[in-house]
Hints:
The complex is a heterodimer of chains A (166) and B (250). Chain A is 19% helix and 22% strand. By secondary structure, chain A is an alpha/beta fold.
Amino acid sequence: METAATIYPVDEIWDWLRDVPDPEIPVLSIVDLGIIRDVKWAGETLIVTVTPTYSGCPATTFISQMIDAAIRARGIHDLEIKTQISPPWTTAWISEQGREKLKAFGVAPPVEGAACIGAMKAQGPVACPHCGSTNTEEVSRFGSTPCKASWRCKDCLEPFDYFKSI
Amino acid sequence: MPNADSRELALRMGDNCLILAQRLGAWCGHAPALEEDIALANTALDLIGQTRLWLGLAGEMEGGKSADDLAFQRDARAFRNCLLVEQPNGDYAHTLVRQFLFDAWHAPMLTGLMKSADPRVAEIAAKSIKEVDYHLERSTDLVIRLGDGSEESHARMQSALDDFYPFAGELLTPDAVDEALAEAGLALDLQSVRSAWRSHVAATLQEATLTAPVDAPVRKGGKQGLHSEALGYVLAELQWMQRAYPGAEW
Ligand SMILES: [Zn+2]
């Protein structure tokens, strides 16, 4: 005899996803990161729509597997994880809470407001996550992962990662 | 056959990304500075991600082939990348100048493709441009720093420019396919890419105290599948595993 799957409210499913960490910056949840675009039921099928951060981000597949595991653990097996690239992910979707968590983790959160296209240099100032000083400079446009750049603080002299604004 | 046209566009875009990424990947662990090593690996990764999107689209239009099928199972003659991206890495100046000439085309190309009549093309372009803006910013900065740097860095950059500048023409000169794509509203007129490329490159070279070769003959053929010897070596390395063990997974 088959039992009908429980149709959990989507708010509750969002809460489960808030417990799924970003594999590269584990203090952030995938919801903080803003990559979960939609959670909805289509009949008895749960559809979770995810957008990749960078098109080549190696964590993308792993994140889908973690979402899959988190949801199946609650007994939902009729699950579809959809990838959506439009509209493209932007760091503006990182939550306020996510920005605070990044700072506490030692990563400067993205400075928003600069237009994404052709205006990378106009953005700023980037505050040092260690001492708060804005007397900082870029060391390299690329960092330990595709989403970060390498910076250093000219006051406390510590290097730090800056989460690039895209 | 509007479908066949978007497919050809996706192949050209995707093959450029794939072959350049494969070239850049060879620097991993060998670049002259740690920051550059990381930058090249990340640029390659962005381009691989874009390859998956473009070749995914081309494959879908070829009756459900995957991006991997297209990357690993085609012969050189079926690749549509321009000759520039398959040229050997050379010294760091060559790698950098190749990247700069390509990025200066890639950014305005993608910006134009965001308005493509095919929404699948427009979506991929909108996703890619955010990454490519970073590539262009970095390669522009470095061309200026090394061009207007020491005597040796200047000489190496000038030599790389002399070698690779003739290959840029292929990206900027429309062939019959480019014209058909523009006509159908799927792609932009390459004339507008050409003027954006020219003004960015000219301004950068001036600041870098480098001189573009005058009357350089245009080296072309890649877009039609007529490649230089170099592509064979790139593909041998890229494809040997899937050729030796078709369908292998791990
Ligand atoms: Zn500091």
